[in-house]
Amino acid sequence: MSKEPVAVVGIGQTRHVAARRDVSIAGLVREAAQRALEDAELTWADVDAVVIGKAPDFFEGVMMPELYLADALGAVGKPMLRVHTAGSVGGSTALVAANLVAARVHGTVLTLAFEKQSESNAMWGLSLPIPFQQPLLAGAGGFFAPHVRAYMRRSGAPDTVGSLVAYKDRRNALRNPYAHLHEHDITLEKVQASPMLWDPIRYSETCPSSDGACAMVLTDRAGAARAPRPVAWMHGGAMRSEPTLFAGKDCVSPQAGKDCAADVYRQAGIADPRREIDAVEMYVPFSWYEPMWLENLGFADEGEGWKLTESGVTELDGDLPVDMSGGVLSTNPIGASGMIRFAEAALQVRGLAGEHQVEGARRVLGHAYGGGSQFFSMWLVGSEPPAS
Amino acid sequence: MTREIAVVAFARTDHRRGADELSEVEMLMPVLHEVLDRTGLKTADIGFTCSGSCDYLAGRAFSFTLALDGVGAWPPISESHVEMDGAWALYEAWTKLLAGDADTALVYSYGKSTPGSVRDVLTRQLDPYYVAPLWPDSVALAALQAQALIDAGDTDEPALAAVAARSRGSRADAAPQGDYVVRPLRTGDCPPVVDGAAAVVLAAGDRARELCERPAWIRGIDHRIEAHALGVRDLTDSPSTRLAAERAGAFRRPVDTAELHAPFSSQEVVLRKALRLDDGVRVNPSGGALAANPVMAAGLVRIGEAAAGIHRGRSDRALAHATSGPCLQQNLVAVLEGDPR
Amino acid sequence: MPEVLEAPLVVEFPFTRSLGPVQSAFLTGLRERVVLGVRTGDGRILVPPVEYDPVTAEEIRDLVEVAPTGTVTTWAWNHAPRRGQPLDTPFAWALVRLDGADTALLHALDAPGPDAVRTGMRVRVRWAGERTGAVTDIACFEPYDGDPAQPSGHTGDFENPVTGIVAPARLDYTYSPGRAQTDYLHALSDRRMVGERCPSCRKVYVPPRGACPTCGVATSEQVDVGPRGTVTTFCIVNIKARNLDIEVPYVYAHIALDGADLALHGRIGGIPYDQVRMGLRVEPVWTEGARHPDHYRPTGEPDADYETYKELL
């Protein structure tokens, strides 16, 4: 029995900001969900199940908050699942929801991911003191910066590549009304002059801390046929995990990321991602991860990813635009960041991305990762239904 | 035609009180080995892995990432995690097998309740604006539900004591046990605080028959959630359990066994009513959550125990139930059957 | 086997919660001794007022004042109040349906003992002396045998509404690092670095985590590693980390101890930060009373060749 094709018929996001002081946690998620339903022209009664995701509960100080959010998301009397796979969770949540449709368990599923970081402090949530252990010496950026240095050593990439990514993503964000950072006076010089926080990572090459939510309505063929607007079809989706730290781990280009991408490409019938995929919404919390993931995802050979960035291939008007929305570098409600990647990929193939639309985008990859570069989730969406 | 999927193996810790000397992965790993050994599978043979756990129990963010060490996720595996009881991890894995993405799945969950005060930890699940600031602990909320049942004439203290006594293997006419914790619930009506882990292997179709002499086929599985606020719910009933049971096909034919996840004796009364279980049904031969309630694993244990009864030929059609949230807010029901003997 | 270590772990934070319009009105009302409910599409009055109808999922905003008097719908006697609960003397938890409401509110009920409480008893709000716009502005309920109070018809518009609350939360845990970490920590107190070897792949993990993460089996064979090692990669930290009293800039490095198959993390000292490099050979520097090495310093050996540690990156 073949799987039911899955379509994205509704997408909603909040306008991401540092602190949404005008809404409760329920109000925040509701806003994204309501917009997704409006996009799909559906009502709460049309939703069969809700799949929600977020990063650690300590961020908001609410244990398993989906219990409290059931009412706001119209889940009462319905199945509700809560996914948590660290930073990749937004992507994983969408995949769990998609699978409910693919397995024909449900016809229409609302999926949503969020983080309301202003309820606490992300660094507190990420570094709860653990007795006997050496305190985390460097913060979140410090955790990733040594891997960036390792990448630079391996690839011989010039120091400036990271700043090019940040400059591009921040300019892309200016075209995205939902993006958190709108730095209208951004220049490459300003990025390059920003303070070096965790050398080799500069302040302007790091992601912000945001309040935000993102929701999607996923449905089957019948649901897609009723959709009022163009739909995005899922052509492939996969999750892969490897241990946090282990002997032989390639922190620059983790095997789990390669395997995950290969699985997605196999499902989608993609032989040459560089040629066959039109654009990528990639999870890049620190600018240097763009060239690193370009290699990991098979868009460039090992050590060559930075050349795509440097030559402008990943610009909005380039041959392989990356993070048209401004990416995680411009918007980071942690638990939602992965789903925003997936949703922005879907917006592109639906032709509804507005000012950051890539002309003629037909196949776009959404990518998320988390933990110590150990959890990966990805999907490939297309403007046409999948072949099989 | 829908794919047939079965529970083919189950393992759990012996739920002793506390596992202080062990980290989560040290507690979990023997259970993973045991469940894989039962099937002869290795991690690399498993098509999908899914786990359930909760950061708040241990007081550490991302605690599930280190538990993954016990799996041996190398080469990389297709894997997911729910911040829920492992019963819902099993549900996610079931959909994965149903879609044909995998033929086998490893499902596990674990919880260390002893490092914190689980009564207080669970208050953090409540409405963060109106309820959590009052710190009403899990026993207090269950006691409100128990009193509502008593007021409605659905039970009384001796009947609750009988539930507790039967669960712990003593005589069913036992007198109320222990002092009041929060009246009307006594220590005997409340779950012991334990650490524990559980694991299950799922397999589809012929693969299940290869791996297990008598697979426990999942004939139906469904879960439903209710409104969060206690004040808008009828605490003497569990409409979400009933609806999940209907969707899972539980009422089509009688079951011989029911494994109910009722952490408090009074909640078994609610569940029996919602599930229309009569005295002919063996309820919680494992002892249920009143014998051992490893939080985040206790629901998966119910499914595993129900399946194990089928594996051993002691049961032909069993119902397994899992719950989450205050006063049975969210409920899952699975119906398992063995092939005719 | 040496005694397993344990230590208190406190998870504590004052969460800042924004309220949204309905919750803002309710909590501001409590500050002003007004109890508000919200009317659903089918005319029920929910108290406390929620933002979304639990039945239809519709957004609801129509605020209605109800009485501060009501009826107990169920209760439970709490003879041993716990930290953070509304009263520190024995009390009843109660769900109270206020006059004019269709649903019940959870709070404490102050009564002399369980015999003085029953379902159906009449109660009223006892207001807190100091009210800030929080659910604790209701100090508790108390028995009441008068007539239902009459609400004044407040619509929920207040001056200076509260828009947020601070919700401090503290949970106390007892943390134990488990068997493998305990052994490692005991060895550290003798200033030895002891890893564990996987019986299957033979890799040496330091610190050991109790399981070989690639093989999924317990590690137990102890192996002395270091004390010297190689900096595999690093970053220069220019911002002060929370709760850390280290002058910036400093170097945070991944260090592969000799004999270990995985790098651990540490600070590099004894050398200007801008002279640290990949391949630098280092050794731990211990300070009195500290469990972990304070930092690592250069040994003076020639740098390790990239080929010797690139697999450990």
Automatic annotation (TrEMBL), chain A:
Please tell me whether the keyword Acyltransferase is annotated for this protein.
yes
EC class of the enzyme, as a word: transferase
Q: What is its EC number?
A: 2.3.1.9
Q: Which UniProt keywords apply?
A: Acyltransferase, Transferase
Q: Which InterPro entries match?
A: Thiolase, Thiolase-like, Thiolase_C_2
Annotated Thiolase C-terminal domain residues? 244-372
Q: Which domain of life is it from?
A: Bacteria
Q: Where are the transmembrane segments?
A: none
Question: Which GO MF terms does the UniProt record name?
Answer: acetyl-CoA C-acetyltransferase activity
Q: Does the keyword Transferase apply?
A: yes
NCBIfam families in alphabetical order: PRK08313.1
Name of protein? Acetyl-CoA acetyltransferase
Automatic annotation (TrEMBL), chain B:
Q: Name it.
A: Lipid-transfer protein
Q: Which organism is it from?
A: Streptomyces resistomycificus
Q: Which domain of life is it from?
A: Bacteria
**Which GO BP terms, alphabetically?**
fatty acid beta-oxidation; phenylacetate catabolic process
One GO molecular-function entry: acetyl-CoA C-acyltransferase activity
TrEMBL record, chain C:
Q: Where are the transmembrane segments?
A: none
Source organism: Streptomyces resistomycificus
Enumerate the GO terms in the molecular function aspect. Answer: DNA binding
- Per the record, the domain of life is Bacteria
The protein in question is named: DNA-binding protein
Q: Describe the location of the ChsH2 rubredoxin-like zinc ribbon domain by residue ranges.
A: 187-218
* InterPro entries registered for this protein in UniProt: ChsH2_C, ChsH2_Znr, NA-bd_OB-fold, Thioester_dehydratase-like
What Pfam family is a match, any one?
Answer: OB_ChsH2_C
Show the SUPFAM superfamilies listed in the entry.
Nucleic acid-binding proteins
Please tell me whether the keyword DNA-binding is annotated for this protein: yes
Q: Cite the entry's keywords alphabetically.
A: DNA-binding
Q: Where is the ChsH2 C-terminal OB-fold domain?
A: 64-127, 223-286
